[in-house]
Amino acid sequence: MSLLEIDNVTLRFGGLVAVDNVSLRVNEGEVFALVGPNGAGKSTIFNLISRFYDPAEGRIRFDGKDLLKHTADQVPSFGIARTFQNIELFEQATVLQNLLVGRHRHRKTGMLSNIVFSPKAYREELRHREAVEEVIEFLNLQPYRDKMIGGLPYGVRKVVELGRALASEPKLLLLDEPASGLSVEETQDMAFWIEDIQTQMGISVMMVEHDMGLVSAVSGRVMALSDGKELATGTAAEVQSHPAVIEAYLGT
Ligand code: ADP
Ligand code: MG
């Protein structure tokens, strides 16, 4: 059984078929990449997994459960975390506070028990803090820990987004263009982190990425899409040399 199973999924926006009969599997411990020109339907597939949209047709199963029977706000509780193509963080909060938001799915005690002191709430809060401090250390975010997101450079915000997703301790991490806008050095760091996330933490990763250097370095399998359709799936080298993929990129 694969961790994520997408079968024959189609999604239309009016007359536009954004995702056209796509099937894919993400196995446990795998890094799976989606590549393809702008508008290919890559982010829409993430939005389908996140349950922001209902597919017109098809099945989406995660960890043996039918995701289509659940709502978007239930998805994180299954162990699916994501980053967004356009960073979505709380600008007026610190790095630490944004990462604590990532712990939301693990919170058992409500707001009231955090206000009215109880040893149980205190112990739980301590556990969340420890988990977040580990993420801060892993991503070298110590210098920014208590800084407001609003004032941070783009590259650091990108890392904080990864951190917020990691803080939730997911089984599957969805990364939408993790290297876009990053320098060569920052992209290198991102590659190391993705490798560690897979190998040390045992988290499966599905990523959308244009940087084929990064895709080749970290992905097991790659699916190329164009106009919502699968063009080819295989290793990065196989996909890049596939005639349909070359044609789609040349726009012929
Ligand atoms: P990409 O592969 O670049 O991530 P997207 O998945 O964002 O592509 O978009 C796929 C297609 O669906 C594009 O043509 C895009 O304009 C369209 N699209 C995406 N989201 C919406 C939406 N909410 N409403 C209408 N059209 C959309
Ligand atoms: Mg996109």
Outline of the structure:
This protein has 252 residues and is an alpha/beta fold.
Structure commentary:
- The chain has 252 residues and is α/β, with parallel strands linked by helices.
- The protein has 2 domains: 4-79 and 170-250, 3-Layer(aba) Sandwich (Rossmann fold), CATH 3.40.50; 90-152, no CATH class.
- It has 10 helices and 10 strands.
- The chain has helices spanning 42-49, 75-78, 95-101, 111-115, 119-138, 154-167, 184-199, 212-218, 236-240, 243-250, and strands at residues 4-13, 16-26, 31-35, 57-62, 65-66, 80-82, 172-176, 204-208, 221-226, 229-234.
- A 6-stranded mixed sheet has the order 6-7-8-3-9-10, with helices on both faces.
- Helix 3 (95-101) packs parallel to helix 6 (154-167).
- It is globular.
- Bound molecules: adenosine-5'-diphosphate and magnesium ion.
- The site of adenosine-5'-diphosphate (ADP) has 11 residues, from strand 2 and helix 1.
- Pfam families: ABC_tran, BCA_ABC_TP_C.
Secondary structure layout:
Elements: E1 4-13, E2 16-26, E3 31-35, H1 42-49, E4 57-62, E5 65-66, H2 75-78, E6 80-82, H3 95-101, H4 111-115, H5 119-138, H6 154-167, E7 172-176, H7 184-199, E8 204-208, H8 212-218, E9 221-226, E10 229-234, H9 236-240, H10 243-250
Parallel strand pairs: 3-8, 3-9, 6-7, 7-8
Antiparallel strand pairs: 1-2, 1-4, 4-5, 9-10
The structure holds adenosine-5'-diphosphate (ADP) and magnesium ion (MG).
The site of magnesium ion has 4 residues, from α1.
